[in-house]
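Justification of computing resources. Each target in the renewal requires a structure prediction run like the one illustrated here; the chain below, 321 residues long, is used simply to show the kind of job we budget for.
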Amino acid sequence: MSLPNLLAPIAEDMNALDRVIRTRLDSDVPLIRTVGEYIIGGGGKRMRPALLLLVARALGYAGTHHHLLAAVVEFIHTSTLLHDDVVDESSLRRGRGTANAVFGNAASVLVGDFLYSRAFQMMVETDSLSVMRILADATNVIAEGEVLQLLNVHDPDVTEERYFQVVRYKTGKLFEASAQLGAVLANVGAEQEAAAAEYGRRVGTAFQLIDDALDYSGDAEALGKNVGDDLREGKPTLPLIRVLQVGSPAQQALIRNAIETGEADFAAVAAAIRDTDALQYTRAAAVAEADAAQKAVSGFPVSEFSKSLIEFCAFAVTRDR
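Resulting structure tokens:
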């Protein structure tokens, strides 16, 4: 199952989205255009805007504001990536140097700010308080998630509850907002809007769980980032938390030291994760989220768009990048 196949029903919408993105990136400041084109043109799955487009179509929307709001979502997501890479001191994303590695931290932060503010300029054009409320709330929750994650760094006593809170805030919230916006555009009732929001939140959580598993089982070239980055940054993700729950005393000591210092032997940590059920446990949690997402949209009208939403759930947990 490939992402292009899943998104085939909205191929024209995705092309329209691309045109909006490139038009709205325009600025009289050359550095903004340069950095913006670099990060936007660097590929990426564009899953969040795709979910907005799919939900809107699945629920019968026939206007054009979904292209605008899909671009808003992508700008918000891209701005968080620019800021994240500075905070995490990352050097590789999507198989090439991060914007901060190429242009410097100051340019990355400031262009990220530009994308945030441009996103808010664009969302106002819908003249919808519901749209603005959803996006304003989402950006605030994402910022809270970033701070929560910062508090968790280098803390080996982080619980699953604290871990999942960060995932829901930092990753799940924008997926949730994207799907919910598709429902709002389609002007459906509260029940379907809530179902769309739950779908986005659940499938976004599943994606993050698989990302966290791939950090210890994936191939750097396939992933387009440095495998083991989470460990070097001292982030206690679910595979590490699971080893601390079920590993031998030696394995637990290894993981605690890895989280506290970020300097442990990656191969040894990966072996400890493989020798316990940490990867299976993380993937099982992802599958549970994906199953819940599929259930949330099971009542949507049957169409090629709703079929893609359901297949998206399987893609979220079977991908290798």
